Amino acid sequence: MTFRAPVRDLAFALKTVGHSALMAQAFPDLDEDTVLAVLEAAGAFTESELAPLNRKGDTEGAKYANGKVTAAPGFAAAYQAFVAGGWNALSSDPEYGGQGLTGALGLAVFEMVHASNMAFGLCPMLTQGAIEALALHGTERQKRLVLPKLVSGEWTGTMNLTEPQAGSDLAAVATRAEPDGKGGYRLHGQKIYITWGDHDAADNICHLVLARLPDAPPGVKGISLFLATKRLVDDAGNLGDPNDLRAGSIEHKLGIHGSPTCVMLFEGAQAELVGELNNGIAHMFVMMNAARLQVGVQGVAIAERAFQQALAFAQERKQGRAAWAPDGAIYGHPDVRRSLLLMKAKIEAARAICLSTGVLNDVARLAVDEAARAVAKARAELFTPIAKAWSTDIGVEVASMGVQIHGGMGFIEETGAAQHYRDARIAPIYEGTNGIQAIDLVGRKAPMENGAVVDALAAEMHETANALSGTPGLETVGARLEAGVAALERATDWILANKGPNALSGATPYLKLAGDVVGGWMLGLQALALVGATDDWSASKAALARVYSAQILAQAPGLAEGVMEGAGDYEAVSAHALGG
Amino acid sequence: MTFRAPVRDLAFALKTVGHSALMAQAFPDLDEDTVLAVLEAAGAFTESELAPLNRKGDTEGAKYANGKVTAAPGFAAAYQAFVAGGWNALSSDPEYGGQGLTGALGLAVFEMVHASNMAFGLCPMLTQGAIEALALHGTERQKRLVLPKLVSGEWTGTMNLTEPQAGSDLAAVATRAEPDGKGGYRLHGQKIYITWGDHDAADNICHLVLARLPDAPPGVKGISLFLATKRLVDDAGNLGDPNDLRAGSIEHKLGIHGSPTCVMLFEGAQAELVGELNNGIAHMFVMMNAARLQVGVQGVAIAERAFQQALAFAQERKQGRAAWAPDGAIYGHPDVRRSLLLMKAKIEAARAICLSTGVLNDVARLAVDEAARAVAKARAELFTPIAKAWSTDIGVEVASMGVQIHGGMGFIEETGAAQHYRDARIAPIYEGTNGIQAIDLVGRKAPMENGAVVDALAAEMHETANALSGTPGLETVGARLEAGVAALERATDWILANKGPNALSGATPYLKLAGDVVGGWMLGLQALALVGATDDWSASKAALARVYSAQILAQAPGLAEGVMEGAGDYEAVSAHALGG
User: Fold this and answer.
1) Catalytic activity annotated for this protein (chains A, B) (predicted)?
2) Of B169, B565, B575, the CB nearest to A320
């Protein structure tokens, strides 16, 4: 199955979430034609260089032997081509060698990278996080010697957070950082689940590591962020001896076999502090937020790939009398087509949410107007957990629907549909589980400014609902969006009024409700943007908005009831009563 | 992770779906104590003999070499123990050596078999289908020589339906049956996806094969059902030479690796007709309906296993400050507990639907009153596609939620949660995809007797809703069930009024709606049955009914809108517009 870069959909999605306005204000050298050219070139690269390696990455995977990790077959060469093509440096600051494009465009490119080969995409994705952390909090030396190498992609980056006892709860991090008496530190400890923690695809690997000093306060306020490179770097930037750190093993995982997930052993590794002592968690969140949005994009990407494969299969496979296909292709069966359109509608909604968050991050960083920056920053913070969790849940759902469309062949590994179902499953877990995202949403994000951030969003969505209700062919979308926004407002009021276990037990349905409604809004905006156009692609966008409104938005009022249930029953039931 | 047979839940579920009344009427020798004793003994067997093999079945799987299949390590010995324990013969007719228990009790036992080891359970499950087909349509010779061996389990059975071009569309079956001039036939052709098509766990394998005579009419009306045994059987029942059939290969699958999925090659195999010439599809549906219900039970089973593992993990794993657990066990986190209770509520609802269908099948077969038999038969027919599709979708959902509760460890194969996620994925596909079930529901089942079968069900559900609404603590369950039943009635009216593509494009949401509402009804009945009981297990059943009503039933009215959307948008969108 070949991958076809969804360039037209991506360019259109960018436009409808404010990318043009962003460019006009902050990127005078960037125009729509350039955006399209970048997307097309990136699309061609992912189609020809990355997609063909995806299956081999799955079947052969990365290998661990004698303390070293070898990337999956072809991955190292593809990575070199990726770096040589300048794809790693797209959105980075030109000061460090980046191309200075918008972060949103970088995200769109990364969607294609992940769709073509998610296991591969993780390597530059992690590097991206390291770039953002060092650009914001790095020392002069780190910015001079390390950052440009990360921006170019000659070196790669990792995030070393998790330890066996410290997963969602980073307060439990135990890796020690001992001052070496020369201004540096020595790290001792074990990290797990370190994505691309070791490999042979680049000259050096820059590990950003959470650890605590011997005299640090307990809990999250005693954790600092360190940089430890696989090979030491002298003051001229030359590579020296190997550092005292190594991969201890790689995990045997359900999916993304092409991405080595390492146990990393720090055995007195030389390290430098990044940012302030004991403020590592805050610095880490810079990486983490970027990574969360990227993981959301992975959800979209794997869904897109699964959708493409299912669509191609449905056009080829003939079974029975299909109402809408004279040749009997199962694409002509109403139930199959319903499934495909729902997959596509979910993908477009999730894509728009992720790219919108990307644009908001750009505006928050670059808008001239300070108030506009603040507004964008708040909404980006609100959207980030939704982009991560809602999109990755959709990745799993759509990959599962893709398997289903294949019938029996979907369960056979050679078909490839099953790989997407396996690969997709990690995205709701890593970079903060979707449960953690939901808790972040109800605990920190929805309550921002006393709910005013959600209120402002709701007001905009009401406006769109009005516009839809007045547009022939989109009236039902408008009515259902209106009802959905009202349901979200009720649920938000309840969440703000109910702290603690009540709100926490409603967190997951609240996040789903928010994603469902915001996704419906995005599809409504897309349909409005194409009113009057009569080509089949434009008509399909209106159809997708209607399908989504009937199949998903219509359930928003019911979902809100689930949010507002309260914790009583959950609190009361013992594990014993459930058979535990 | 050990498996704990959910004996108490199963016994209770049986009671609330009319098993006691069934026993009183048609099984005078069977009482509640015996039921419990059977469940306990079966539970002990599955816990000690089958569950420990489940992981090895996954990691090592069945093997193919030199035209022969070897069962996964330990499976053949476990199968011998299964047969020796009499577990294969539970519900079969004593005339053929069965124990004559209710089919519903047999299903409950099979739930534990599948939960402990789904790949293993497929072997006796397929035998069960062959038993039912031969008991109804077999010749005297088949009933004398073959049926008792299948009932005891000494020989196993298979269903040979699918061919590369004939999956959901059996009209395309091309395997040839040529008369041998001696009253028998010779089969020529290739079948695929044949579960336990070859193995070394039993002395003989009885293949029930769809094929067509050279002069048969085209389409489904030219297909006949044949019996071809792996080894020939003489008139005294002795095993003779190998037949001219063999496994050509086994598939490399996403899950159920312990179940060999064979390509079967019929190379002039000797075969006997089963039932009438050219009526094979109808005879096959006897097997198929039994298998569909069993597959629904597999959905429940894998969900139960995944739930147990997640619950055990949540009690052990400590992360952060848990609102409801002083020791920090993640079972004390509201979001985790919500997830676990929702898993459990779905399991209990699906279990009740499957066991209810089992009881209805028994009543349809055995009730003294002819009218009662007819009523039960119609409802069993209505329930069968729901039991199959809704329960297996829940199997996938719950297995996925189980992975999620494990966090990063869920993605590591050694943990075992991922196996359930992989194993569960086949159940929505085989024995008629869930799309086919939905089409069966809207096309044949809901329209039975002009909708009167659904009407009668709705009337009963309204009664239960009334009872719930008048019961302290269950009022909200009653109100939501009432609204859910009304939504199902609206959707049913629409389905009956809209044939063709409109109804077909609403089929999948209609089935989900029906399952959601009937499942809510079942949980409501369970809660009503325990009113007044104060132990924590009884209290948990009321809590599960409330949780389910808030999280699932509340969405029924919105889901009904999705059913009644119509086919317009689906019909209009070309594959090209979607990027195909």
Assistant:
1) 3-(methylsulfanyl)propanoyl-CoA + oxidized [electron-transfer flavoprotein] + H(+) = 3-(methylsulfanyl)acryloyl-CoA + reduced [electron-transfer flavoprotein]
2) B169
Whether B357 maps to a domain, the answer reads no
Residues A167 and A120 in one domain: no
- Clarify whether residues B442 and B498 are in a common domain: yes
Q: What is the ipTM of this complex?
A: 0.98
In this structure, what CATH number is given to the domain that contains residue A75?
Answer: 1.10.540.10
In 3-state terms, what secondary structure has residue A82?
helix
Q: Are residues B41 and B132 in the same domain?
A: yes
Q: Which residue of A has its CA nearest to B540?
A: A573
Confirm whether B245 is domain-assigned: yes
Nearest to B428 among A404, A430, A559 (CB): A404
Q: Å from A262 to nearest chain B CA?
A: 12
Q: Which residue in A has a C-alpha nearest to residue B534's C-alpha? A: A577
pLDDT tens string A375-407: 999 999 999 999 999 999 999 999 999 999 999
The set of catalytic residues of B is 431
End-to-end Cα spacing for chain B: 44
Predicted confidence (pLDDT) per residue in B77-108, tens digit: 999 999 999 999 899 999 999 999 999 999 99
Look at A169 and B320 and tell me if their CB atoms are within 8 Å: yes
* Number of neighbours of residue B317 by Cβ within 10 angstroms: 19
**Looking at chain A, which residue has its C-alpha nearest residue B407?**
A429
**Boundary residue ending a domain (B128, B150, B172):** B150
> Total domain count for chain B?
3
Query: Per the CB < 8 Å rule, is B335 touching A400?
Result: no
> How far is it, in rounded angstroms, from Cα B305 to Cα B313?
12
Whether the full predicted model's pTM is greater than 0.95, yes or no, is yes
Q: Based on the domain organization, do A23 and A144 belong to the same domain? A: yes
Inspect the interface and report whether the beta carbons of A508 and B338 lie closer than 8 Å: yes
Judgement on whether residues B107 and B236 belong to the same structural domain of the protein: no
* A344 domain residue, yes or no: no
Give the nearest partner residue to B573 out of A9, A319, A540, using CB atoms. Answer: A540
* CB-CB contact of B580 with A312 (8 Å): yes
Q: How far apart are CA B391 and CA B354, in angstroms?
A: 8
Q: Is residue A489 part of a domain?
A: yes
Whether the pLDDT of residue B1 is over 70: the answer is no
The answer on B126 and B178 residing in a single domain is: no
Residue-wise burial string across A393-402, b where 16 or more C-beta atoms lie within 10 A, e elsewhere: bbbbbbbbbb
DSSP string, A410-447: GGBGGGSHHHHHHHHTTTTTSSS-HHHHHHHIIIIITT
Q: Is the pLDDT of residue B26 over 80?
A: yes
Contact residues on chain B for A561, CB-CB shorter than 8 A: 550, 554
